[in-house]
UniProtKB/TrEMBL annotation:
SUPFAM superfamilies: DNA-glycosylase. This is DNA-3-methyladenine glycosylase II. It catalyses: Hydrolysis of alkylated DNA, releasing 3-methyladenine, 3-methylguanine, 7-methylguanine and 7-methyladenine. Residues 1-34 are annotated as: Disordered.
Length: 329
């Protein structure tokens, strides 16, 4: 059940560190919609994969439980606020991308997903699926916002990657439209391309990852087209860029395309987690992981997601990976 878009009155929005915008429709006016999915609604479960750490400047959970997202849409920058009200979600959006974001709300919350295609063949997955009825795979329709942070996460700890994302988005992005002055829209492709080498270094990003991002933003328009493709075609499009391999393409299309079978290979932890959960093999590698997930062909990403949600992970034995610090070099 889709609601009508309703414009809110124009207001003055003040962003700390920037010149206040007086009555600008792109920044100050909001549009709203209400949508009720025919399944149990769980905003955090659906949108959790889009958050890059607790300090992500593009994503925030408010004290009232609402979720805020700042995006660079095909129509321009936009901010989206989502709040669960009973079995429905109330959406409010600001900026040039407001209408585009509201149109995408059902897909964002999993309307394009088909959980009925998944048949659990292990008790752990059956139990977890039953306990998480609100699990739906998001589809953002936006490639670069997932691709760039995924490149930042290549071969480093998540903490290092999240720090780099925070520094670069806050330093080179723009304050998000709307009333939340803590949110930022990520830089546009041209701005990414103009970031000086020493700023990448200060953010702890080595030349291999920064060069991959620079190659990607030069082809941003063509890469964004991948959001409308079938997941396998989308991955092939992304992997045409040197430095983007199966790990990065899977991490991207899981979010941009809602790809239920885009299992992540080349991950430091996932094979061991899947091996432990499905076969008691703590030291499983990618080949063994794919073998264990073969019964879920077509839904392997969903199976892996359920395993992660189950909390059934192997006990930690090896020391934690020590983060590098190229900014100190």
């Amino acid at each position: 059940m889709a609601g009508r878009y309703a414009p809110r009155p124009t207001r003055t929005t003040t962003v700390h560190g920037a010149v206040p915008v007086q009555g600008s429709p792109a920044r100050a006016r909001s549009r709203t919609r209400s949508w009720a999915p025919p399944w149990p609604l769980d905003l955090g479960l659906a949108l959790g994969p889009l958050r890059r750490g607790h300090g992500d400047p593009t994503f925030r959970t408010a004290p009232d439980g609402s979720l805020w997202r700042a995006c660079r849409t095909p129509a321009g920058p936009g901010t989206l606020r989502l709040a669960a009200r009973g079995g429905a979600v109330e959406a409010e959006a600001w900026g040039a991308g407001a209408e585009w974001l509201l149109e995408q709300v059902p897909s964002l919350l999993g309307a394009d997903d088909d959980p009925s295609a998944f048949t659990p063949r292990h008790r752990l997955l059956a139990v977890t699926e039953r306990r998480r009825p609100g699990l739906r795979l998001t589809r953002t329709g936006l490639v670069m916002e997932s691709l760039i942070p995924s490149i930042l996460e290549q071969k480093v700890t998540t903490g290092e990657a999240y720090r780099a994302w925070r520094l670069l988005v806050r330093g080179y992005g723009e304050p998000a439209p709307g009333p939340d002055n803590r949110l930022y829209v990520m830089p546009e492709p041209r701005t990414w391309a103009l970031i000086p080498s020493w700023e990448w270094h200060r953010a702890g990003v080595d030349s291999k990852r920064s060069s991959t991002i620079l190659r990607a933003v030069r082809a941003a328009r063509r890469l964004e087209e991948a959001a409308t493709m079938e997941p396998e075609q989308a991955r092939q499009r992304l992997e045409l860029i040197p430095g983007i391999g199966p790990w990065t393409s899977a991490e991207t299309v899981q979010r941009s395309n809602g790809a239920p079978d885009a299992v992540t290979v080349g991950d430091y932890h996932l094979p061991g987690i899947v091996g432990h959960a499905l076969a008691g093999r703590r030291e499983a590698d990618d080949e063994e992981m794919l073998e264990l997930l073969e019964p879920y062909a077509g839904q392997r990403h969903r199976a892996a997601r359920l395993i992660l949600l189950s909390g059934h992970t192997p006990p930690r034995r090896a020391p934690r990976f020590t983060p590098g610090n190229i900014a100190a070099l």
